[in-house]
Design a protein that fits this description.
alpha/beta; Peroxisomal Thiolase, Chain A, domain 1; four-stranded mixed beta sheet; fatty acid biosynthesis
Length: 355
């Protein structure tokens, strides 16, 4: 049987930090209010388009795998904030990398986009369509954020992560997954003013308002991720005791705590980095996974559970068996262009551009 082994991993976080104290300069909030309700302390604001974040993350993933751009046969780019809808953003990553042998596709399932992309690439490797793939979860959501809405403005940030997958006879990579959607509730989390539905209307592209019913989203997030975990564990005849580490989507610390309780998990078995980056939508789960590897929380041959939830309302849960190698083969010197603005200055620039 063919598996899609994870051989490389990388991330790209924009250098500009937006702290809770920064948010308090233009919103009626403070650090204690945000931290107690979300677990978030700061988030990143990108000064470049999402394809550039993805490109840097991919270069790092390739270096970690000891591979070149020419080795890549497929690029699957998960996001909701693509530079363009046509041509697709994955083709821009191909161009930036010089990965001329790679087929390219975009996936949009909101916050689960990185995980749905992982399923897509894994399936194509297992079926023999391709032998290698780059999987991307990336987001530059700050330009379309409604910075006047405290309910959402404190939650989101920008970032990217990538995995390099390769066909293998060893039992590695995604062993089982479950995907789903609460489509009947899709309107409780929606970005209005963004998409062809609003074409030729008075609203300017990027001048978006957010529908965000927090309590309802909380309930659906816990239910969706728990359901996904239970289904995926059952596929392997696993219990939560067979999992070495849980790396959940980092949407809200209270959601993570509720999920851990529902699955009878010890908090020490759950990886959390929400305090550093907030919710990066499509990038969140993959960035957390990459950081778990970097921080040696992922061990050789360990089983990792990754539940996620996003707009739509999509949900997913993956069980990954990691391979023997947990250290990168090489490193990449590719970095983002220098940024001479703070996170707050970048946000103020976005706000002023919409006036």
């Amino acid at each position: 049987m063919t598996y899609a082994a994870i051989k490389g991993w990388g991330k790209c976080l924009p250098p500009a930090v937006l702290s809770n104290d920064d948010l308090a300069t233009f919103l009626e909030t403070n650090d204690e209010w945000i931290t107690s309700r979300t677990g978030m302390k700061e988030r990143r604001i990108s000064h470049v388009q999402v394809s550039e974040l993805a490109y840097v993350a991919c270069e790092k993933a390739l270096a970690a795998a000891g591979k070149e751009a020419g080795d890549v046969e497929l690029i699957v780019f998960g996001s909701t904030t693509f530079d363009e809808l046509c041509p697709n953003a994955a083709s821009n990553v191909q161009r930036l990398l010089g990965a001329k042998n790679a087929a390219c596709m975009d996936v949009n399932t909101a916050c689960t986009s990185g995980m749905y992309s992982l399923t897509t690439a894994t399936a194509m490797i297992k079926s023999g369509v391709v032998k290698s793939a780059l999987v991307i979860g990336a987001e530059a959501i700050s330009p379309i954020m409604d910075w006047s809405n405290r309910d959402v403005a404190v939650l989101f940030g920008d970032g990217a992560a990538a995995l390099y997958l390769e066909a293998s006879d060893e039992e590695e990579g995604v062993l089982a997954e479950s995907l789903g959607c609460f489509g009947e509730s899709r309107d409780i989390l929606a970005v209005e003013g963004w998409g062809m539905k609003y074409a030729n209307k008075e609203r300017v592209l990027g001048d978006a308002t957010w529908a965000f019913l927090g309590q309802e989203i909380f309930k659906k997030a816990v239910a969706g991720m728990a359901q996904g975990c239970e289904k995926t564990l059952k596929k392997l005849n696993f219990t939560s005791q067979d999992i070495d580490l849980v790396v959940p989507h980092q949407a809200n610390l209270r959601i993570i705590d509720s999920l851990a309780k529902k699955l009878s998990l010890d908090k020490s078995d759950v990886f959390i980095n929400i305090h550093r980056y907030g919710n990066m939508s499509a990038a969140t789960a993959l960035v957390a996974f990459v950081e778990a590897i970097e921080e040696k929380r992922v061990k050789a041959n360990s089983h990792i559970l990754l539940p996620a939830f996003g707009g739509g309302l999509t949900w997913s849960a993956h069980i990954i068996k990691f391979g023997q190698r947990i250290t990168p083969i090489g490193s990449s010197q590719i970095e983002l262009p220098a940024c001479n603005q703070s996170g707050l200055e970048l946000v103020e620039q976005i706000i002023n551009s919409k006036k």
